[in-house]
Amino acid sequence: MHLENMKKIMISGLLTFSTASSLPMVMMNPVHAEGEATQVNTWGEENGAKVYYGADGQKVTGAVKIGDTYYGFKADGTLDSKGFKTYGTKNYYVNNDGTLAKGWQAIGNYAYYFSKTDATRVYNKKVKYLKIGKSGRLGKAYAQAIRLMNKNGWTLKKAFHYSAHLKFANKNLRRKTPEAYATIGFSKKAGNCFVMAATFYVQAKLLGYNVHQVSGYVGASKAQHSWCYITQKGKKWLYDPDVTNEFKRPGYHFREGAKGTLKYQKSGRKLLG
Question: Is residue 118 part of a domain?
């Protein structure tokens, strides 16, 4: 071959190589054997329903964590609808958007707790100082309190403020538990010292406090009364919503015998809860 022609061929080859190497690289999705592209770790849609493709390119099912959020998927891989669901051997609750509920939830007339770690429904377990039994649910008073606190805020001060500002109604009510008294308060938005203390008690329980409601007597005349106390670091702090409501005295977080508070009689005390 003529020397001049060889140079042209060599130069042409170098130019071709240089041009090709300067083009951007395009990453392709993995491909199935039959040639169909696979979607990985991404949302998709099938027949109008949301699906999620996992690391293997397959649709996920059951309870699945995507990012920081848990979702529920049906056996066919589509995002599940609202309601109680069972995936494997665990129970869950799916919200409207397909996410799994966590923490305290008011569903119908009952309160439920779902693990903040993996969203599983809790049975036979204490959540702080509140016991959840075999049924996996608590009664109406707790459901009412959850809805109230979702609106007003989940703090002890806001719980006390609500209870101390119920309409005073000095009716001779006889109930056996704080929950029974609290249901009256949450429903009627009114009540006596027992009702006020009970609505505070239920909210404080949901907030994780070691709270108790007391039935006893106050003053020299030993008038029947009810209040709460919370134990923190071995000390008892009193919370008396009725004192704030009826007598306009400090009733939030005080030690028994503190100046300006009622005289709480030692005798005749009874724990309601």
Answer: yes
Task: Let me know: does 142 contact 206? Beta carbons within 8 Å.
Answer: yes
Phi, psi of 133 (to 5 degrees): -90, -160
Last residue of a domain, one of 132, 149, 165: 132
Give pLDDT tens digits for 40-77. Answer: 999 999 999 999 999 999 999 999 999 999 999 999 99
For tokens 């070691």, the residue is 210
Cβ neighbours of residue 237 under 8 Å, at least 6 residues apart? 229, 230, 231, 253, 254, 255
Return the structure tokens found at 268.
Answer: 């005749």
CA atoms within 13 A of residue 123's CA, in its CB half-sphere: 7
* Global pTM value: 0.84
Report residue 262 as tokens. Answer: 């009622």
Q: Which domain holds residue 120?
A: 42-132
Q: Are strands 270-271 and 211-218 parallel, antiparallel or unpaired?
A: antiparallel
Give the C-alpha separation, 153 to 224, whole Å. 31
Q: Which tokens in the block code for residue 107?
A: 């569903």
